[in-house]
Amino acid sequence: MTLTSLDPGILKAAHPVPGAPNNWKRFFSFNTDAKVIGIQYIVTSLFFLLVGGLLAMIMRGELITPEADLVDRTVYNALYTMHGTIMLFLFMFPVLNGLNNLLIPCMIGAPDMAFPRLNAAAFWLVPVFGVILMASFLVPGGPAASGWWSYPPVSLQNPLGHLINGEALWITAVALSGVSSIMGAVNFVTTILRMRAPGMTFFRMPIFCWTALSAQTIQLIGLPALTGGAVMLLFDLVAGTSFYRPEGGGDPVLYQHFFWFYSHPAVYVIILPVFGIFSELFPVHARKPLFGYVFVAIASLVIVGLSLVVWVHHMFPSGVPQWMRDLFMVSTMLIAVPTGIKVFAWLGTLWGGKIQLNTPMLFSLGGLFNFVFAGVTGIMLATVPVDIHVNNTYFVVGHFHYVIYGAATMGVYAAIYHWFPKFTGHMYFEGLGKLHFLLTFVGTNLNFFPMHPLGLMGMPRRVSSYDPEFAFWNVIASLGGFLLGVSIIPFLLNLVSSWVWGPKAPANPWKAIGLEWLLPSPPPAENFEDNVPTVISGPYGYGTGKPLVEHQEAYERALQEA
Amino acid sequence: MTSSAPIRFNRAAVAAVSAWVGVLVLLSHWLGQQAYRWLPVQASSAAPLVDDLFSLETAIACFVFVGVVSVMAYVLLFNRAEKYDMDDAAPVEGNTLLEIIWTVIPLVLVMAIAWTTIGVNREIGSIGPMDHSHGATSEAIAGAPTAEIQVIARQWSWEFRYPDAAVSSTELHLPAGRRVGLQLESADVIHGFYVPAFRLKQQVIPGRSIAFFITPTREGRYRLRDSEYSGTWFAANQVDVVVQSEDAYQDWLTRAATQPLRPGISDASREYAQQQSRLRSSGYPTVPPAPPPMVNVPGSNTLPHAG
Amino acid sequence: MTTLPPAPAGPTPAHGEGHASHPSYTLTGFIIFLCSESVIFLAFFAAYALLKSTATSWLPPGVEGLEWRTPLQFTVVLVSSSGTIAVAEHFLGKKRLWAFRGFLLLTMAMGALFLYGQASEWSGLSFGFTTGTFGSLFYLLTGFHGLHVATGILLMGLMLGRSFYPGNYEEGEQGVIAVSLFWHFVDVIWVLLFLLLYAWQA
């Protein structure tokens, strides 16, 4: 196929697919362009971040004093349940799928995802199950209130006896979330396996694609187990079956196995893309190649394998035999090794680099700091005797919030700032970005560090009231929480005002190396269209002077003239 | 073509790094010692084992964390680019030797921790054979072996029965200095039997009767908290554990057997009754609390506790 | 205006307005989906195996065991239908559409016969979905599988209908191959189910 000359006019506008509105309305339609779907996912997830965050503010308001004096205990239990559920299923997974949609096709030189309509369908399920979950606040019995784990038998207690109750809606929403995620996973894996640009072998693929491939593989393997466990829970709840009911011969611990068989790997679904983000951002903003690219890539696959055989570490105090505790302790410890390889790779990348302390870099560095802290407390949690003491205490809550907020969400913020110019065509305001970082970093540490001494002292999690000796650290944690609530304001202000009024962004504001940076800002509907470049070297060639693609100068010149 | 940076052995750098590592070791050791203070008082034979392990882990964690952060700090101090300088740095793409080192050393370290911990697990020896009795009929539970103390967890109270002495209470009394067997049972949902001062925790699962062993070592009054979310008054499901000398413990049992049965501690029942007397309910519908168990000795959960 | 050099020869996933040269990824995606779907069955199998091995009393009162001869007959029907759909695929490859349609219809009929057998077994059982753990698991496993059989029959009907559109197979036969894979998958699951439920009755 021969190319015609590249019309710079095409490079100017991001035109959506034929038939879709060529303005802001396209974000509210069943649009099959991955870049539109990506924005849809991200904006929807940010909305739910606010909802989940509001619930957290009320929770921290309750916990600033020892007594259950702000809201009724039943309300508090519903709040913490919905906080966790919303944050995971309506913020974290969707925002990562949004980044996948924006980044994967562009990074591999594909025009779109493998199955564009499946892609749109997967997105539109999110507001659907979001509404179902939020609707549970309106049913007479109130929302689900058994934690985001929903362990039976307590989750099967249905005081009003209604068929349509909060727990049933919760299970339905989570099941639909699973369907949406599996649809996405099939799409992402097929796209990465089959649609890479010519010359882009696996070991010339950006790490973000490696980690996305790994994370989505985990989704494919783990989610159906959760779905199966949830289906059985729903039947026990509404149909009177006895999968988990002891009276009928069922076993409540069986649910724990199903739940954690997915939900442990799920945390790697969350953190692997963030590892990918750090692996992309550190080279760009330190102007150095990623240290040990091949090891980092392979470590992602090792993490997939190991993540599937550690789940019982969430069940050490439940009814599992000693040999099982020992076995899963060993497997859990092993996962520190590929994770450590990545951390050291990032340090190796930063060392001797030329560090640019812009907002994406600040969030990446802060995320790394928080992640290492979470990692070392994770080693503590992996050892059975210590875990027996701190399991289900605030120590665990502190640990996972350091990962989920301190590392993963900060990584997501880093990615949003880094690729904002590319996908919106506007630069964000750096001052607001730095303010966002400062408030977030301080707020995160103030909110979640105190949870560690609280857990060590024996304060259980999920409590609506506590003994007075825990008050001191709870006050600090609550203040940190309120600061986090405030920190979201500069972020939202920045996103909105930059997209509307921000200065026009060049194609490559960071002078980064990657196929997405050879596209205009924002890229046209089918990215490279008929001019897909041929990749001739690995990614992260900073300082080597090697071009990434054949005829690179021609692509760069076309961008200049557009 | 990959460029692997040769590690240049600059004497001053080696000396500085060694000195810093020395500082880290001292800091980590110190922090490991501090770790004991973050934990409650040690009241069982398991506690020193757990605390020693935690102290070791704290020291290692401190070394790793501060080590990594100090590298980041160095980079932030000495590797900053000039304001508008977006040129590339030196193209160091990797170093296979380093990769091997930082794969093998962590592997050895975590396996060493795991190995020692398996030994600690054995020593603690808190769980007995997993007794299953599916079908939580009273016959099934009655058929389970009789331990010294039977613990019945409910929404939301704890009942302790001493079958040999025909005593029941809602305050757990234990003798110091010897191994005690408990049989943990739940009447409704999963609860968590957790005594922070003992460093021990076990889920109490309906349909099973779980044998659990403790060796209390220090007299005093400690908190027992429900650690597995069990519904509305989960947070209020707390009672006390009183560890006494063997003589005092036997005394208490003898005197308790003569006490008439009366309602034991259930903060949930008290709060529920208060709520019922109000005109409007303030929350979502809830499972009503089980009535407080009728026991010889209710005890107290409002006295000062040591941990 | 800048002229870009000619595109390289080879499998460039580029396409013009009509997406005429767009390679099909349907089979890759479908196979990935099937692998994922198998895990939900594995989860149910694991539940059955675990609960059965740790139960003190397993079968509901009054139930001695499952009758296995009739289900075995219906198993033969289902497994044979994997053969008939393979034959149908073969004829499609040879562009003998009427033979294809005939064997596809035969496969659908055999699937429907299997479902009929499942339903009549259900109606003859003395225990229900809510009769203890065994009842819950039995109906969950066979019901979920039956749902997949029904879905397979519907998909085959869809393929049958589409076979009448002119030019349906110009871009390949991925749809038929995918449905055929699905049917084989449903078959394999049944064989495992049969072994679990009817063979392992100790």
List keywords for this structure.
heterotrimer; A: 562 residues; mainly alpha; globular; disordered N terminus; C: 202 residues; Four Helix Bundle (Hemerythrin (Met), subunit A); elongated
Structural summary, described in words:
The complex is a heterotrimer of chains A (562), B (307) and C (202). Chain A is mainly alpha-helical. In chain A, 64% of the residues lie in helices and 0% in strands. Chain A has helices spanning 8-12, 34-63, 73-108, 116-135, 166-194, 207-238, 252-286, 293-307, 322-334, 336-350, 359-382, 384-390, 394-424, 430-448, 451-457, 471-501, 552-561. The longest helix of chain B has 33 residues, at 46-78. Chain B contains 6 helices and 12 strands. A 5-stranded mixed sheet of chain B has the order 3-2-1-5-8. Chain B has a 5-stranded mixed sheet with strand order 4-10-9-6-7. Chain B has a two-stranded antiparallel ribbon with strand order 11-12. In chain B, helix 1 (11-34) runs antiparallel to helix 2 (46-78) and helix 2 (46-78) packs antiparallel against helix 3 (96-124). The model of chain B is unreliable at 131-145 (pLDDT under 50). The termini of chain B are far apart. Chain C is mainly α and 202 residues long. Chain C has one domain: Up-down Bundle (Four Helix Bundle (Hemerythrin (Met), subunit A)). The interface between A and C is large, with 64 and 46 residues.
Question: Topology as H/E string of chain B?
Answer: HHHHEEEEEEEEEEHEHE
Please, what is the average pLDDT of chain B? 90
CATH architecture of the largest domain in chain B: Sandwich
Strand content of chain B: 15-25%
CATH superfamily of the largest domain in chain B: Cupredoxins -  blue copper proteins
CATH topology of the largest domain in chain B: Immunoglobulin-like
Strand content of chain A: under 5%
Tell me the distance between the termini of chain A: 24 Å
Parts with pLDDT < 50 across at least 5 consecutive residues of chain B: 131-145
Greatest chain-chain contact: A-B, 104 and 95 residues
Structural class of chain A: mainly alpha
How large is the radius of gyration of chain B?
27 Å
Distance between the termini of chain B: 62 Å
Query: What form of chain B results from the Cα inertia axes?
Result: elongated
Helix content of chain B: 25-40%
